[in-house]
Structure formats: structure tokens, C-alpha cells
Amino acid sequence: MLNLVPDGEVCEWKLRVHSPLPTWVRGSIALVGDTCHPTLPHLAQGAAQAGVLGAVFSKCPSNDSSDINKSLLVYESVRKERAETLVQLAAQSGRALHLGGGAAKTERDKRFASLKQDGGAVPDKWADADVQKKIYGFDCYQVALDRFDDVFAKANEGQFVGLGQQPVNSSGMNGNAAKI
């Protein structure tokens, strides 16, 4: 089938990731998706991570900028650690699946072959039962709902600083953010 594609018609690009960012939120600006947690396609989770921002904002009490800023802090506190864990699992799976030749590939293939008899960790994280449970047994919407009121109240009182940020003041802005 690929032989039927004219030369120059297939666009290829490298898959890229970056190190975890210290924060995703500054004032009323939030990074979402691949801008803050680019995910390799080895867990089928890149697009699946998109729904939580909606869950958080469904709880936002108003469209007041202070409430929005605090809601963004809730979004970050609910999502950041989990998203970074999924990014790491996808990278591990990618490394295991794309070994090329050599001893590491031979050892990986032996692990796949012995799974039926011996059980154990699956080199392909997407197919690992424990990873599947971690991914699909997690209700991100419920976690957002459960944590929203507590984090929002702490942000209201200036107690919740966000991740990698200074304390939030009464306007919902952190000490580094310029008021727009």
C-alpha cells in the first residue's frame, strides 16, 4: 500500500516531549494539553487527558477573574501529577517497544513470551493490567469535584500557593503575575 503513495506525499516528523514544567498556571493563564504535558502515543491517552479542565470549570462559581484564577489552580492541583505519571508511562512503553536489535530486544521478547506462563510486568505498559487499572480505574471528573471546594477555599484564603508559585492574593493573582 505504501508503494502506491507518491514520493513526497508522506509527511514525517519526530515525536517530541519536554521535561515537566514547574507550574502550568500563572494568574489567568493556563497551559493545557501538549503545551504542558506532551504525551507520546504509546498509552492512547493524549486526547483522553482533555476532559478535566471542563470538570473543574463546571464547578467555578462565577466568571469573575478571581474565581477563574483560583479554578485554574484547582485544575493544576488535580491534573499535574497524574498527567506527568502518564507521560512517564507512555515514554517507558515507547522505549520498550522500539528497542531495535540486540540484547535488550531479545530480553524484552523473552519477557513477552514468558508472560503467559509466569505473569509479571508487561513491557508494553498499555497492555499491562496494573497500568490499565491506573488509567481506566481513575475518575478524573470525581477527583476534580471532590477536591475543588477544598483547593478553591484555600486559594481564597491565600493558603494554596499552586505548584511552583507564590501565594495567591485576594485578587487571585500570584506574586509574580502582572495584573492585566
UniProtKB/TrEMBL annotation:
Alphabetically ordered keywords of this record: Monooxygenase, Oxidoreductase
Gene3D superfamilies noted in UniProt: FAD/NAD(P)-binding domain
GO molecular function: monooxygenase activity
Keyword Oxidoreductase in annotation: yes
Protein origin, superkingdom: Eukaryota
Coiled coil: none
Keyword Oxidoreductase attached: yes
UniProt record similarity statement: Belongs to the paxM FAD-dependent monooxygenase family.
PANTHER family recorded: MONOOXYGENASE (PTHR13789), PUTATIVE (AFU_ORTHOLOGUE AFUA_2G01950)-RELATED (PTHR13789:SF147)
Listed name of the protein: FAD-binding domain-containing protein
Classification lineage: Eukaryota, Fungi, Dikarya, Ascomycota, Pezizomycotina
